Amino acid sequence: MRQFITLIIILAAFGFHSTVNADQTVNITGRLFDESHNPLSNVKITLNGKTVRSNEQGHFVMPLIKSAVKDDIYQLSFVKKDYFSNIQTFSHYELFSLQTKKRHGVIADMTLVAKKEKRVMLAFGGDVMMDRRYYKPYFGDSILIHPETRLEDSKKIVEHIKPYMSIADYAAVNLETQIADKKPGDRAPKSVTFYSRPEILDALSWAGIDYVSLGNNHTYDYLEPGMESTVAFLQQSQLGFSGAGMNEKQALKAHREIIKNTKFSMLGYVGWEGRSEPTQTATHQHGGAAYGSMKNILNSVGQEVAEDRVTIVQYHGSQEYANSPTGVTEQRLKSALDKGAALAIAHHPHVTQGLELYDNKLIAYSMGNFIFDQNFSATQHSFILYVWLDEGKFHRAEIVPLYVKGYKPTPATGVNRYTVMKRLTELSKVRNTHIRQSGGHGVITPITASVTVKSINTEVTKNKYVQKAGEQYKLTFAQGSKIASLYHLPWHQQLSEVLLDNEQVKYRLGKNLINGSDFESYPTFDSPERGLFFDRSLMTLNNDGASGNRSIALALNKQQATTFGVKSFWRVYSASRPMTIKANYKIKNAVKLSYYWQGRKSRQKLFDAFKNSPKHLIKTVELTGKDKWQSVEVDFNSPRIGYKSYRIMVEVELLNGSTTQLAIDDFAVIEWHSAFTNSSKPPFFTLDSRQPAYLGFSEVMKTDNSNSKGVVITK
């Protein structure tokens, strides 16, 4: 019989409430190591002005009064002489909610990187703009940038990533917009064009960013006047730039820097010329982005490498919202590395893609969004990538998960951390590149690394994973529920078995399409969630929930129904997919819940769809007024053909009483990525099925778990 090192953890426990009083002292603990896994003593750890130091075993304890922590967010800095600093951010919920001793939050073991004479720490972010909904938001959302306070407001947008970018020796992003004080002139003949005010450059510099790549499909949105304005403002700023210019020669010219006595060259490209005239890429006759043809990439990389310069390539290509790069992108990036480039960073899909160690050089195939106003959920999970190079050779990478919350980049915590890191881990694993855990971050090391890291269940040697044993996690269910959350499983480990006593019970694997729907991070980082809609005058935020510490409540009255749901249509749309809408409700009076889907047809304009597309009834459910949490799960299939996207909404009608409040928690729209099975081995047939956030069962599960032993995870 198979043996397990068993660790029982209750997942998404229904009716859980934190036992930590607001004025109690809580302890955050952890251990710090160097890259050879030797304990690091005397590391200075700071949180909210309070400082402790690690002991000889690398262990630290940070005591604090919970009520003194804003929005239940803990951001710790780690500083030690002759080591690179590190920043890690956690929510109270993810540190304390599932701990046996609720007053002790444990951070996973962390590694600090030693400084070296020519070891350089680089930081990269994805796509950046501050246009459109930053000034004119949809749906009555609050304005983020006001004309009279543009600089102050622009800095507020980047304030939460400033600590992360500032600790690097050199930081870079993709500036996917032109720069102008006012609209530069005629638009290029395309459906979407951007220009951002010059204050964006000051805000980026203030946040610790040193360089921007202009090699993208929005750097020529307003043709020559916009290009001239962009170059002029960048030349007046503190930012280095390359990837575009007033002619082809300027566009293909590298930006050169000396970093720690090492010569660096930064190159940027866009992967296609564009269909209109003039093209978006620079020629001898007009300006634009650097065209990233194979010939141009090899020539420009070769020129820099021939002068003994560490050459960094940034490339804008592949398909929007895809899981993987196109073959053209992959070949061009690998050819650039073959030619001598040290590192390749790519963007354009607006969602993250995997990372790959290719000949021990790192490729990031898509960084996703960094500062962007896209309001559909798939585009809001991204990352900062730290890369350490030793005289141009890859030494180490660290992934900082980000959540673009209300259009502001913020450290991803809780379910958002899980979502970011699970996706990157699985997409990278396909390319034989393994991401390990360091605190709340992910780490990639060279395949030739000799470091050995031992833990309770795995041994990692030379970047290869040796199975020693699995950890068993027990599932619990709400009364009447068929679904269990997996968000509290470690993101870096994979589901390996689902253990069931009853062979007649089957399960399937699913992902949540809604961000922030557990409401744990709703008030954090001074940036409310913008993905759900409801009448703000009727909403309050509760400090308790069905599965955590928070929920929302909507005030109801007998005279008028109210509606809540997904604010925008999903751009990443899977047709004819089994779906489940899941939520927990609490109410004193009986209500009727009518579930609908609304579609946006293939060629339909966005606001026409909001206004004129019919609502299709999925199901009506009546809730009795029990004043305790009740689970509702509604199954349907996503539209099969003819639609670009769709969204979900729930209409609430009070059946008795004059007024009351409806509390809502864990509102999820789950897309199922496997058919029901009773096999103990999970059916990982697709990339999406390898990133499960939920298990759905074929029948209502007993709350005492007599028909479910749980799940096992392994490396």
Automatic annotation (TrEMBL):
Residues 121-374 form the Capsule synthesis protein CapA domain. It holds the Pfam family PGA_cap. Residues 1-22 form the signal peptide. SMART domains: PGA_cap (SM00854). The keyword Signal applies. InterPro entries: Capsule_synth_CapA, CarboxyPept-like_regulatory, CW_Biosynth-Accessory, Metallo-depent_PP-like. Coiled coil: none annotated. Keywords: Signal. Belongs to the CapA family. This is Capsule synthesis protein, CapA.
